[in-house]
Amino acid sequence: MSINACSVYPKSHIRDALELVPKYDGHNIPIWQFARTCKRAKDSIPLIDEALFVKMLRNKLSHHAYLAVEDETHETVAKFLESLKKTFGPDWSANYYRGQLSIAYKKQGEHILDYICRVKDLVTDIIEGDQSNLNRKLTHIETHLIESYALEAFYEGLPSKYRVELKAEGYTNFTDACAKAITIHNRLEKEKTRYKNSRNSHEENLTNTNGNTQTRILQRDNHHGPTDNTNAFDGTRKICTYCKNVGHLFHECRKRQYHVNNQRFDNNNNVNNNNNHNNNSLLTPSKTGNQFEASANGITRGQGNVRLIYPLECTPQECTSFDQTPMTCLSSNSNHLPFEVP
């Protein structure tokens, strides 16, 4: 049977599978990395050549790793790796790997395939740890529970963009979720590359635009630069003698024109005010003095000048009766003054 198998599957297949397995001395690489490559190589050969493949795997070991399995004989790859893990594997239980799986996440800049491999390695460690503790192979239900737990941890460890798209697409199991996560990763990377290219082209356009603008400014400055003719007069040398500002002349000064217009407006207002005052003075009679002037008819006509009072002299013979005492008055509204006798 082995002869027929060898005739159907040449030994070159085993040699090709062995090329996938690196050298291992117990310290150069982690044991889980060596175990993963051994399992991958085993899947590429028929099961009938697994015992021969294990014997040839021993040639990949050196130093302490070879000494650990030198006196042992293994029929399967699983037994061969289990013997190496007992010596070089970490002394951690399956619960430790469950804890590591619960906090696993995709690191920034990490490829999605590396994240998937880390999760798968933790799942393998959990399964092997439980089998070692139970001393038996796990059932399909027990393996399915571990994969369900790994699926939840894998989903929670993805970035938000991955979770949104993966939830929208849907998934059935851990393997399906990993495949769709790879597709999402490739799509997001394409979008990132497209955005990066568009941003670079936009920055190049801005750089070219700024360079052209600076060139035009330099050309314009050179065009308006000073000439050899000292009598030439350009706009940058104009100085106003009124406001002392640069850029215009006296007759072009807006400030001067503004002041002139305001002065004319003030003069017109003064003339109008004077005319109104004169007209009002003609209509209103002027007032002189500080007393009212009495008219001939006894009617008050306004303030008038004070009239002087002159005393009258007489002899006692001329005034024989008190009823004929002479009186003097200023006006009809004035107070009566008694006659003064010297």
From TrEMBL:
GO terms for molecular function: nucleic acid binding; zinc ion binding. Residues 268-290 are annotated as: Disordered. Residues 268-280 have a biased composition (Low complexity). The lineage of its organism: Eukaryota, Metazoa, Ecdysozoa, Arthropoda, Hexapoda. It comes from the Eukaryota. InterPro entries: Znf_CCHC_sf (IPR036875). Transmembrane segments: none annotated. This is CCHC-type domain-containing protein. Residues 281-290 have a biased composition (Polar residues).
